[in-house]
Amino acid sequence: MPGTWPGMALLVLVVRAKLPMRLLAIDTALEACSVALLDGDTVAAQETQAMARGHAEALMPMLARLQENAAFYFAVIDRIAVTVGPGSFTGLRVGISAARGIALATAKPVVGITTLEALAAPLIAGDASSPVVSVIDARHNHVYLQAFGTDGDDLVSPRVVSLAEAIELVMPLRPRLVGNGAAMLAAAWPPGEAPPAGIDQQAAPMIEWVGRLGQLADIAAAPPKPFYLRAPDAQPPTPALAAQAARP
Amino acid sequence: MLVLGIETTCDETAAAVVERNTDGSARILSNVVLSQIEQHAAFGGVVPEIAARAHVEALDLIIDQAMREAGKSYDDLDGIAAAAGPGLIGGVIVGLTTAKAIALVKNKPLIAINHLEAHALTARLTDNTPFPYLLFLASGGHTQIVAVLGVGNYVRLGTTQDDAIGEAFDKTAKLLGLGYPGGPEVERQATRGDKERFALPRPMQHRKDADFSFSGLKTAVRLEAERIAPLSPQDVADMCASFQQAVVEVVHDRLRSGLRLFRARFGEPHALVAAGGVAANQAIRGALNRVAMETGTPLVAPPLNLCTDNGAMIAWAGIERLALGLTDAMDMAPRARWPLDASAAAEGARKRTAAYK
Q: Same structural domain for residues A105 and A162?
């Protein structure tokens, strides 16, 4: 996923260009449940609700309302975009399952957008003066992060690191921080060092930008697969008697 | 009536298309099952997060394959059914959400199915068994004796107070250093073992209810094994045989008790129906046959691929419910716990049972 998308520099073009693409965007990876229908560069309809849990119940009624509020049905969309993480394992699977189910029934392609890209995109498109670091709380004093240069290039690839490691990685960039971990990382900034150039505490990506990145994404390079960044928390067991039984 | 069924409550990713003709006969047009056994084997049991990850990777491909094999399009369907629980919530979310998405796009009814209900109704898919009948459901996650009186009308007569039968087999296998899944391995070892060698308890035997308990048996196996450790291959085989014999005798006794309870409340059942993967065990199958013969009740045991988790049973339960106009809304919540009947749920809460895992 990292480095496989076409680069943020293109965003400036997208904002101005008239893409004829009709796209359904879904984000349930973090602390919001959001959907939008884009018709080219117009947002035909959208809805966002803040929520830490309950995406599995909320998403489908929200999609049904979206279809009613837009002037067109899912049957005529050209593409689906969904956030693939990093984020809540359960939350991102809700969105991906929905997107892939809609893709089955409409026979339309679906692309995966990382939450890190989607958080950074509006900042870079709006102001290219300093690097942007997307920071997502990964709990237990860890964060998911990715650093983007002013032209959208990948300065620090997506990873999960401790707060201390995060500071070491991104402090020299004097970046703007964005995401639900932005304030947390800023609070851990060493006193005496030049502070972050900006702190944009965002619970979740703006759904419109998930859609815009989705319109841009290369289908082959942005599969709608979960981007967990963390292995499942499971260890193979060491049964006591089994070891005994195996001995002669 | 044509329904797509989706099953993702444990470690099988499954989808199927089933058709019911106007004469009531059913035809399974496709039944695709992807097992995750290899992904869980190293852990000696199903790991919920690994299961959820595997479901989301595979489900759309499995559904696509099921639709292709059936030779049907989504527009041909009369409804989309998915298991909405009970089971591992991560997998249930994947299956139910995918089903909702297809139903929404195609403007078809969603039918949220209780996984246990699907097991309970499978005998009607395979054998057109009339209501009422006595169901013995035994798998890695469930052990229940249920009076099946009609669609949506179930009375739980007995359940386990701790481990499910399949779980007891798996834990015994793990203890003895055998592979996963443990059920088939214990059965294989038991064929060359002495079932009389170890005097293991028969928990719950001769009680008037139809409940099970396996934790005491599990402990007895562990104590015996520790007593004679290190275990020779013959010791392991004898332990498996003795354990399996204890389970068989308990199942026989509990089913007789369940039948008595059924007759007292609901009259004569049309059949004794087996469901769940444990029905694959030949010794337990023998106990079912014995009960059937002793009590003059016909035994209905669907083929093994319809006893273990599969999409066809979900599709069939979907057909049965859809025919009665029972459909579900788009905000239907996935459920980790979902007892078949409400009174059993209340009783279970009081008795601190752990039947639904």
A: no
B143 & B283 share domain = yes
pLDDT tens for A173-187 read 999 999 999 999 999
**Residues A95, A209 within the same domain:** yes
Residues A216 and A104 reside in one and the same domain: yes
CB A114 within 8 A of CB A126: no
Report angle CA A146, A149, A152 to the nearest 5 degrees. Answer: 85
Asked whether residue B321 carries a pLDDT value surpassing 80, the answer given is yes
Domain of A27, CATH number, reads 3.30.420.40
Q: How many contacts (CB atoms, under 8 Å) link A and B?
A: 139
* Option in A57, A96, A244 nearest B229 (CB): A244
Distance CA B265, CA B40 (A): 42
The gap from C-alpha B42 to its chain's centroid, in whole angstroms, comes to: 23
DSSP letters along B147-165, please?
Answer: EEEETTEEEEEEEBSS--H
- E strands along chain B, which residues? 2-7, 12-20, 26-35, 79-85, 110-114, 133-138, 143-150, 153-159, 272-275, 299-300
* Contact residues on chain A for B175, CB-CB shorter than 8 A: 239, 241-242
Examine the domain organization and report whether B188 and B277 are in the same domain. yes
Q: What is the separation of C-alpha B319 from the centre of its chain, rounded to a whole number of angstroms?
A: 19
ipTM computed for the complex: 0.91
The answer to the question of residue B353 being in a domain is no
The CA distances from residue A19 to A13, A15, A34, B335, in Å, are 10, 9, 22, 41
Evaluate if residue A246 carries a pLDDT over 60: no
Establish if A247 belongs to a structural domain.
no
pLDDT higher than threshold 60 for residue A238: no
Interface residue of A28, A89, A100, A108 to substitute, partner B, most B CBs within 10 Å: A100
